[in-house]
Specification:
A hairpin with a 3-residue loop joins strand 3 and strand 4. With 141 residues, the protein is mostly beta strands. The protein is built from no helices and 5 strands. The strands form 2 sheets. It has a 3-stranded antiparallel beta sheet with strand order 3-4-5, with no helix packed on it.
């Protein structure tokens, strides 16, 4: 009664297990046939077939909106959704990745939008895979 061996795929998705048996119970002897007529000496089966968890991540921030307006103070807010990606299969939601809503108070003059501009590119980061088409990322300062 052979036990299945270790999965041949260690992370993500479906793996496979193999097990084998020897023709030794008893061993063929004195012209007796080997075990080939008794079936295969090795088996293969899928394992870990449940989908892998996908942890959630926040999407982009919305544009700033206005909550209330006083004589001299204006409150702004913006929000983001936990949809990049959406958590699946028991993956964690965006708890711990920061708040989904931001508020800021400013006087009316300082609430005028100022468009941002990118700085210079940073150096390329490490590739996400050693082979088979990975991705490299870099950001701007």
């Amino acid at each position: 009664n052979a036990e299945y061996g270790v999965s041949t795929q260690s992370t993500g998705g479906t793996g496979q297990q193999t097990r084998s048996r020897s023709c030794n119970n008893p061993e063929p002897n004195y012209g007796g046939s080997n075990c080939t007529k008794l079936g295969d000496n090795e088996e293969l089966r899928n394992c870990n077939t449940d989908p892998c968890p996908v942890n959630g991540g926040y999407g982009e921030w919305s544009e700033w909106g206005y909550v209330q307006r006083n004589v001299e103070v204006e409150n702004q807010y913006r929000h983001r959704e936990c949809n990049s990606p959406v958590p699946k299969h028991g993956g964690s939601d965006c708890t711990g990745l920061g708040f989904p809503i931001e508020h800021q108070n400013c006087n009316i003059q300082s609430c005028v939008p100022i468009n941002g501009g990118y700085g210079e590119w940073e150096e390329w980061g490490q590739c996400s895979k050693l082979c088979g088409g990975g991705k490299q990322y870099r950001s701007e300062t």
